[in-house]
Amino acid sequence: MKIHRLVGAVALALSLAACGTSQPATESTTGATAAEGADAVLKVGASPVPHAEILNFVKDNLAPAAGLKLEVVEFTDYVQPNVQLEEGQLTANFFQHKPYLDDFNTTKGTKLSFVTPVHLEPLGLYSKKITDVSALAAGATVALPNDATNLGRALKLLADNGIVTLKDGAGTAATERDVTGNPKNLQFKPLEAAQLPRSLEDVDAAVINGNYAIEAGLKPASQALVLEKTEGNPYVNGLVVQAGHEKDANIVTLGKLLQDQKVKDFIKQKYEGSVIAAE
Known about the structure:
alpha/beta, 6-stranded mixed β-sheet, 5-stranded mixed β-sheet, globular
């Protein structure tokens, strides 16, 4: 009898172990993205400047009263924040404009959705060798961001300021092949966006994304040789999530906080015109 009882007890223990929770449940690929519930932590990927700074302002000043818990994860490139969001390692990200996101979804096969516009970082042309764009010498080398949408955006900036001429209808997808007029025979050097500030030592000028310019200590509002116009500009940066999670309660709340007047005041005071809050 004792043997039978022992065998039965062992069998029962094994059965309970198999059905129990002794092994931690693995997080689903959409677990981080959904991030629902009062105790949920929203893990948001962001470029260090200004995106992470804006998110940390929200985290410290607005999120607690709204019942949100934010974890800000910084990235120094424009690829991993989308890759990790698609994989469910992030709840959301905040570093990009919609034209870039649309191109990323098309080329990478991701399904990410733009939720809330927050701010604009005007693209600018910078130089350590000249102080006026008219001083660009014949044959000068100009570095440009090499990702598809920001390359077209950079060429449009040059075209809008009479430095080059683009083929009609080139739009945001413009490349060097769409340059139909280049009176100074400028030499273009496409580089990863994050490398552009460092390239100023080696080139005559560089078109630099606003976040990387600010991070490098440049002041777009006062130091750019030419600066992108803000009116009607489609390159507003905003909050992005996996498609299908746009109306998650915590995402909606975070979107509202990012558009709060206190955030707009913070942007205006901190960046002095180099970053402009979305209307």
